[in-house]
Amino acid sequence: MNRHSLLRPVIKKEFIQILRDPISLAVVIMIPIIQLLLFGYAISFDIKHIPMGVFDQSHTQESRQLIRAVTASSYFVINNNTGSRSKLDALLEQGDIKIGVIIPPHFADDINARTTAPVQVLIDGTDSNVGGVALGYFIAGAQGYALDISQRVLNDQGAAGVLRNFPLLSQRLRIWYNQALRTENFIVPGLIATILMILGVLMTSQSVAREYERGTMEQLIVSPVRVYELIIGKLVPYIIIGFVQVALVTLIAVIVFHVPLKGSLLLLTFTTFLFLVSAMGIGFLFSAVTKSQQVAMQMSFVGTMLPSLLLSGFIYPISSMPLPLQIFSYIVPAKYFLVVLRGIFLKNSGVSVLMPQILIMILISVIVLSLCIIKTRKSLD
Amino acid sequence: MTGNPVEAINLRRLFGDFIAVDNINLSVRQGEVFGFLGPNGAGKTTTVKMLCGLLLPSSGSATVAGFDIATQPDDVKRSIGYMSQKFSLYSDLTVSENIDFFGNIYGIANSRLTSRKREIIRLTGLEGRENTITSALSVGWKQRLALGCSVIHEPKILFLDEPTAGVDPDSRRMFWDLIYNLAQKGMTMFVTTHYMDEAENCTRLGFIYNGKMVASGTPLEIKRTRMKGTIIELDTDAPSEALGILRDMPVTNEVSFFGRLIHAVTMAAPEAVPRTVDSITLSLKQHGIPVNRITTIPPSLEDIFISLIQQEDSREPS
């Protein structure tokens, strides 16, 4: 029998419902913006301005040169309230300083006598990451100072030329894609994927679970509407909202956070579409399984927030995770969209480079939508 | 194939080991209001879902509007209306938008929809409320609107699953007026309910218990054939004393309060019943208990179904 598609009435109804509640709609559109601004400013992986205390018992030109060499970069800020050893210890214990440097009284004498000049460095290891970085910065600064002294000594002995005959390694460092190593460039695309994942799943799961709770799902399934029309009809409006979110968030990334958007907008649109379909399909599936707004909401948070934050490679590189978690991360759509976003934003990656991610997102979408159809058909048993 | 709108033969549905519906035979005739009765969990909803093409039978077969439920579920869906207990409407849409939506998903062309909408509004008495948000309607109105939406495509058969649960008596009466109204126009009604007064008003009844059909027929047939004994109703100013006396009399089997009244069942043969009534009256007068009224009454469906359930349960161990 000839049959008209019943997709349109379902989409139209969904839109009327969405627009009837403009406050919720505004909230849904504002949330990613607020989250991006909040997290974008708050999350920083750069370790700068580490508080450093110096207990300088030498009080000489030499000791001050050492401190200057170490603090020339902006990695350390000096806390001057360190008149005694016990004061330094107290500051370290209170966490007011993360690194304490104790320069012995004979420091300058040792330097001038050209013997080894010991300097004690105390590091607060509670935050292993900051501690390790502080140590690295200190050693680099101190070695620079030592090298300066060696140079001066050789000069004094008229042997400057000797140094020139040493084979020195010349490093020509060049950082690609994110030349200034700005954290924002790394964080913001990751945030976009994570935020959209959570919201996408949440929005659709709530809308579908409401149909189950109010009994309208049953009414739809008894009607001639096919299950696939029902699923697509419910997803289309939310995919459109998703696109609005992506557009706004991208604008903020570029304008507020100055993240370069080097790649193709067309590719960004296409991959966003794939991502939204898979994320919202998952939301649909959650509510087809739980049939309750509340349970679906909890499932959405647990099922997307944690995996998207922790297992997508947003914060922690997947390659350094234990194998079982690495395997689990393969089903997290945000993982692929993250690679795609970082690629398009920072590297101008094209279709060929991103093909694996694109194919996997297509695969996830197909699997998720098939599960939705199966689950919805069975859902009234 | 028979011409009956609903015809089920040995319909059976298992969930694992559990037999939800056990070889049910059912036929519903054109234009009748068929009442499908049974306690919760008896298999009512499972049967309705199978007939609506939502659930496949494990064995047996059924036709609805002439279409096989197993092989032609799409045709079945187009020919039926379905209204569930929850009056599934979109509460954030207006009356008019709800009607439009259900009209659209049943594929009614827009030109036709306009006139159908007017008819539905008139039928349900919702004139002037077309643009009211559905959530602002009272329960009774919502329910009538739900009924209106479920017949927007003029189905041959309308399935109503406990449509009046939790609705006030006034609204229930108005709702049943609507059901008769539609039945008179030739629409076949398949109603599940547990209100016995509603059951009395059905053309025919089917009573399901533990997945089995234990009785079917018109309310009158069921009463005539299924009730053993005669009910004597007594109105007195001293019911407590009267109850004690009746319980001691050998002619009465079951004596119980029925509101302010007393119901006593006698197993006496029909021709002997007047004599029994006389003896009761005499006995009460001897004890100085005034009798305002004593009469035999037809059994209510509730009496019958309670006794049917007891018969089924006592048969169970075998």
Notes on the protein architecture:
The complex is a heterodimer of chains A (381) and B (318). By secondary structure, chain A is mostly helical. Chain A is 68% helix and 5% strand. Chain A has 15 helices and four strands. In chain A, strand 1, helix 3 and strand 2 form a beta-alpha-beta unit. The two termini of chain A are 27 Å apart. Chain B is 38% helix and 27% strand. Chain B has eleven helices and 14 strands. In chain B, helix 4 runs antiparallel to helix 5 and helix 5 packs parallel to helix 6.
The low-confidence parts of chain B are none
First-last Cα distance of chain B:
37 Å
Give the proportion of residues in helices of chain A: 55-70%
- How many domain modules of chain B? 2
Q: Assess the beta-strand content of chain B as a share of residues.
A: 25-35%
Largest sheet of chain A: 4 strands, mixed
CATH class of the largest domain in chain B: Alpha Beta
- CATH topology group of the largest domain in chain B: Rossmann fold
Features:
heterodimer; A: 381 residues; mainly alpha; 2 domains; four-stranded mixed beta sheet; 4 strands; elongated; B: 318 residues; alpha/beta; Alpha-Beta Plaits; 11 helices
Could you give the topology of this structure?
The complex is a heterodimer of chains A (381) and B (318).
Chain A lengths: L6 H14 L1 H21 L7 E7 L4 H11 L4 E4 L5 H10 L4 E5 L3 H6 L7 E4 L4 H29 L3 H5 L18 H32 L1 H7 L4 H29 L9 H26 L2 H18 L12 H7 L3 H15 L3 H28 L3
Helix pairs in contact in A: 1-10, 2-8, 2-10, 3-6, 8-10, 8-11, 8-12, 8-14, 10-11, 11-12, 11-14, 11-15, 14-15
Chain B lengths: L5 E10 L2 E11 L4 E5 L6 H8 L7 E6 L2 E2 L4 H7 E4 L11 H11 L4 H15 L14 H12 L6 E5 L7 H16 L3 E6 L2 H5 L3 E6 L2 E6 L1 H8 L3 E7 L2 H10 L5 E5 L2 E6 L6 H14 L4 E7 L3 H15 L3
Parallel strand pairs in B: 3-8, 3-9, 6-7, 7-8
Antiparallel strand pairs in B: 1-2, 1-4, 4-5, 9-10, 11-13, 11-14, 12-13
Helix pairs in contact in B: 3-4, 3-5, 4-5, 5-6
